[in-house]
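Work Package 4 report. The design task specified in the project plan requires that, given a folded chain encoded as structure tokens, an amino acid be chosen for each position. We show below one input record used in the internal validation round.
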């Protein structure tokens, strides 16, 4: 039995539909109830829904053998897992954004508001830029508008929210998409099953 952690929400539903299409269906997942775990003994698969940011934790600790997490989560928390397949869905980018008239004065410490302090820190360290990180949990766009920060580091999909707040993305840090990850011990002891699933995903990606 392969235990699969799926992220709750639209991404998880899309991921499940892919798994279903390659032969790892679990009909009970479509039932209208509040259950969080579903299994199909015949197919040897058990799914459970978890918060997207928790998928990597479940996989790292071996509660899930595999799971699907955004590249942003993997970069921010650097879990001790294997990254197996880029599913090419949930595409967006991690970017630096700020007011349209922003000018970066290198004589001053740059104030950066973000939900992703580790990604921001690594990025600006690579540029040898001194920064002051302001960790926020929501409404990141407000920070430069109200003068809390000079710029933000955040996920940008269409950029619509930025533009509506008179902000714009300046630099792309890294492209983001959903990745299949595996627990390292599971990959060793359930290698045949996980490799077969990856092969099926590879065939799906070629379509």
């Amino acid at each position: 039995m392969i235990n699969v952690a799926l992220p709750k929400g639209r991404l998880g539903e899309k991921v499940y539909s892919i798994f279903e299409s390659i032969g790892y269906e679990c009909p009970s997942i479509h039932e209208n109830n509040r259950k969080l775990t579903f299994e199909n003994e015949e197919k040897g698969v058990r799914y459970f829904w978890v918060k997207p940011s928790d998928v990597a934790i479940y996989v790292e600790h071996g509660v899930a053998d595999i799971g699907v997490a955004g590249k942003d989560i993997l970069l921010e928390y650097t879990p001790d897992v294997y990254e197996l397949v880029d599913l090419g869905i949930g595409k967006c980018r991690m970017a630096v954004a700020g007011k349209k008239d922003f000018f970066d004065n290198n004589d001053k410490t740059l104030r950066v508001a973000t939900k992703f302090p580790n990604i921001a820190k690594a990025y600006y360290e690579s540029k040898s830029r001194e920064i002051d990180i302001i960790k926020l949990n929501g409404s990141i766009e407000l920070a430069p508008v109200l003068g809390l920060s000079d710029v933000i580091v955040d996920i940008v999909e269409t950029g619509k929210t930025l533009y509506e707040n008179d902000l714009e993305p300046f630099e792309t840090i890294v492209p983001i998409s959903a990745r299949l990850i595996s627990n390292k011990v599971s990959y060793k002891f359930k290698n045949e099953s996980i490799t077969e699933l990856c092969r099926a995903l590879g065939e799906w990606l070629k379509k």
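The helical segments are 10-21, 55-60, 71-77, 117-126, 142-145, 160-164, 184-189, 191-206. Validation will be extended to a larger panel in the next phase.
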